Structures are given as C-alpha cells and as structure tokens.
Amino acid sequence: MKTKIGIGARREFIDELIEQQDLHPDFVELAPENWMKMGGYWGKKLRQVTERYPVTCHGLSLSLGSPEELDYAFVKDLKKFLEEHDVQIFSEHLSYTKTHNAHVYDLLPIPFREDAVKHVAQRIREAQELLGRRIAIENVSYYTEVDAEMDEATFIRSIVEEADCDLLLDVNNVYVNAFNHNYDAKEHIKNLPLDRVAYIHMAGHEQVEPDLIIDTHGEAIIDPVYELFHYTVNRMKEVPVLLERDFNFPELTELQQEMNNLRSITEKAWRNNYAVAK
C-alpha cells in the first residue's frame, strides 16, 4: 500500500485537480472557511473535488488560544461542512487568530505556560465534543516568544496529552522555528509526541535576513527541510503527508515532482511498515 501524498486545493489549479492534469495527489486539503456555504460556480467545483478525492481540512479561525468562549455558531457550520464532504481529518493551528470577535488575520503564538496548556486543552476538548471528532493541532511558526516558562516541544506535548487530541506535524515550521530561535530541530522532533501524529505538512519558506526565515508556503521545499523530513519519518508510523503551496505557483509538474520526492522518502522509510529510531 503506497503512502498517501496530498496537496492543498487552490482555486488557481482546481480544474487541473479535477481533470487530473499534471497533478495526481492521493488526497486534497481544504481550508473550510474558504469554502463553507459556497454555492454557484465555486460550489460546483468544490463538489467535483470532494467527490474525486479523499479530503482533509485545515482550519484557520477556530482560534484555540483565544481567551473567550468558542464561536458556537461557527463550530456548528463547520461540523455540517465536515460531514457533508466526508472529511477524514480536521486540523487546526495551535495559535489564536481573534479576540473579542476581532480577527487579526495572523497566527499569533500562545505563551508556553502551564495555565495556557490548561486553557487551550479545555477548548480543544470542547471543540472535539461539539464536532464529534478528534482534532489534530498543528505546531505553528512564530517569531517571538511570549512569556515562555517551558520549551515549545513540552508545551505541544502537554496540550496533546491534556486534551487527548492528535498532532498535525509541520516539519517546515519546526525547521523555521529552530533556525529563528536557535534550537536543535532534530532534538525538538524527538521530544514531540510522534505517536499522536495524524498527518504531516511540508512546505517552503523564505529567508529574508541572515538570521530570519519566514514561513511563506510560497517557495519550493529546500534540501535541509527534506533532510529533517527524512529524519522525522524514520522515527514514526506511516501517516499521510501534505504539500502546502499557497501562492507563487510554479508549473504544476514541479509541484508534482515535490510530491514525488515526498513519496520517495516516505516509501523508503515505511517500506517495512515500521520505523527505526536513530
């Protein structure tokens, strides 16, 4: 059984996805906020995609780190969308994006603190109960530490355990954070709850200063991120892997080649259906 390699569905190449021209993913990922309650032309395109491919969804605005209660009306609409399109995995960012109903349109970091662990875990448990499914939380890129009293890996592991949820492991985000905050990316990977990973994200980034990388999803994956990915998948069970590309799209054959690269690495690591820790 081959490893499942997917891509984020974008309107810029949705017809090629539907017709399977140049792109041949095993599944697609949608940002539900961009498609919920969509009718007309794009609603038809959405249905064509979800009828052709298995679907995962990666949320943008559940805002698990916000101080106020969940947006229950939004969660109700989200649940309907996930069920309507038979979404197999739903994930969200371990961040916050709004407060007092004001959307900041960015993924702001949550303080690495014990009180934040308790707060976020409770919100995840509530969201899981309302949605009737497990959530996979994603480790996000961040550019400043906010009142940290523990390291990032401990923070993530503590929330996953306290909330009894899954993890969406973004390997590029680990690389970006390790570079920007000067820690060992492989050691960080080792300290994450790899047995709770539901699937993996891979993407490109942009180095804007000698000491600063920005997670853009607008460039090709670089060799050091592929190397960290290789290290990671050799330490864990087989899971789906998604290529993220949000803008600055190359020829679609180049995106397919990136997916082929991911498949080659994972199939070599998972050929015997077990991992060897090194």
What does this structure look like?
With 278 residues, the protein is α/β, with parallel strands linked by helices. The chain has one domain (5-270): TIM Barrel. It is built from nine helices and twelve strands. It has helices at 14-19, 40-52, 72-84, 114-131, 152-163, 171-181, 185-190, 223-233, 252-270; strands at 5-8, 27-30, 55-58, 89-93, 96-99, 102-108, 135-138, 166-170, 197-202, 206-209, 212-214, 241-243. The strands form three sheets. Strands 1-2-3-4-7-8-9-12 form an eight-stranded parallel β-barrel. It has a two-stranded antiparallel ribbon with strand order 5-6. A two-stranded antiparallel ribbon has the order 10-11. The model is unreliable at 274-278 (pLDDT under 50).
- Percent strand equals 15-25%
At the fourth CATH level, what is the homologous superfamily? Divalent-metal-dependent TIM barrel enzymes
Number of domains: 1
Return Rg in Å.
Answer: 18 Å
Provide a quick synopsis of the model:
The protein is α/β, with parallel strands linked by helices. The protein is built from 9 helices and 12 strands.
Throw out a few tags for this protein.
disordered C terminus; 12 strands; single chain; alpha/beta; 278 residues; globular; TIM Barrel
